[in-house]
Amino acid sequence: MATLDWLIILAYLGVVGGLAAWVFQRRKDTPDDYFLANRNLGWFIVGASIFASNIGSEHLVGLAGSGATDGVALAHYELHAWCLLVLAWVFVPFFMRSRVYTMPEFLERRFSPAARWVLSLISLVSYVLTKIAVGIFAGGVVFATLLPDVQLQLGPWVLNSFWVGSLVVIVLTGIYTVAGGMRAVAYTEALQTVVLVLGSGLLTWFGLSALGGWGGLREALDPDMFNLWKPIIPEGMDGTWAPVLEPNRIAWYFNGNFPWPGMLLCAPIIGLWYWCTDQYIVQRALGARNETEARRGSIFAGMLKLLPVFIFIIPGMIALALARTGDYGALSQMVDADGNVIPGTAQAAFPLLVTSILPVGVRGLVVAGLLAALMSSLAGVFNASSTLFTMDLYQKWRPAASRQRLVWVGRVATTTMVVIGLLWIPVIQGSRGLYQYLQGVQGYLAPPIFTVFFLGVFMKRLNAKGCLAALVVGFVLGAFRLAVDTPVSMGMAGFEAGYDPGSFLWIVNNIYFQYYSLFIFTVSVVVMVVVSYLTEPPSYGRIAGLTYATVTDEHRSASRKSWDRRDVIGSAVVLVMILLAYLYFRG
Fold it and tell me: Are 60 and 370 in contact (CB under 8 A)?
């Protein structure tokens, strides 16, 4: 890091700080303003904020790392940009009509207060286990790679660069998030989107230039690393869709390497839950000034969501190709003498590439992009967590609390979630890979939430008792899998080698996470439908406008007026780009 690099980083931080200060001066200490930016966001801010919140630590560290180890395999998740079109066209009308603050609040209106409480608790737990802890961990990985010699003395403890980086990211993000609320988060995320895309795009450009262009990258790596279809059609089984990748491995039941049934059936469940029902994402649409802006912002976010394949996965593959040349000292530590990736080193692929190939000045801009991604994702989850806790839990306990009190409680809730996330970092450090860890935990927690929202909107006969039963049963199954996996991931005493082969806990621990997720989903659907039909139907007057069967002609007419051909064309562009990506990446 040269002086010019540091000046560029300081300039970026100065602009973010200035923007946050400007927002802070315009703040209104009301729940509407603090949690939803006074419901006045335009489509560009909505879309850029959704993208910036999503594109964070798991992409900088985890997705680039998976690119170095598995090639484009995990691009399947990124190409689920079509899920944002489902948000735009299916759910935005319901959410905007309901004028809710949170997704659990919408579930309360559709089903019951108990469903709201349970979903709020599940969401807060998922944020601790995934977004907060992963964001903090990735910040540490980036700093440990860029500034490996930095240390900080805190009393009897000496913190290495990993922990210094984690704490720095928290402090920088926490200051403007706690102070400015959703408005500060949305506006700074719009700025961070520009910095992130520009910086990561430059890294891809310089990386490809070092290899002699796109053709040089393809020549340097195994063709299978460019094959999105390899997880779908196994080697030696051309033309078939058998659910195995290795002839001698029972991947249908046990751990495989992205076998097709999981990608085909499970990945969309996680994607639709995340993009259409997760407070972390949908809160930006809820802050839009009307249905038109919310829909267009969601479509715009879908377009932006296609970029990570090229600005995160491809750089990870570039890092592997350059490491194998032996001409880049820092990158060489990623591979062994045979050119194979050393376990654990791939998570540093993105920052190692930054330190190895970028010239002075550009390096500072890309590091600013790294900070933008880390800060934006954490800022989003901080704000979403405080909204959930304050509006869904605290306000229920203290219904007479003043508006200023609610804002204060939201700030305290954010601080508490950060501390809990810090305590969970050792679990992630012991996991097989950051992105795999993230997808695994989401796969265990998402199915029941996906079930109650989608079935709740499309089937008016389902009632509050069925919803609550599905949420509880699904969450218990997911929590059980996490409880079984965690000791093995951490390498706790007695669990270093896992469970006894063939035992019940060994089977649970070794079932491929996507298949276990499908199991949770199936059980949740069955429980919700059976319990609902065995009990009394809901009051259809109470759920008017909350399901497709109870939408009035007035609602349909108002929604139709909120879109035009531009929205349709934008949605078509997203779908065509996804199709072209699948057609190109065929190995």
Answer: yes
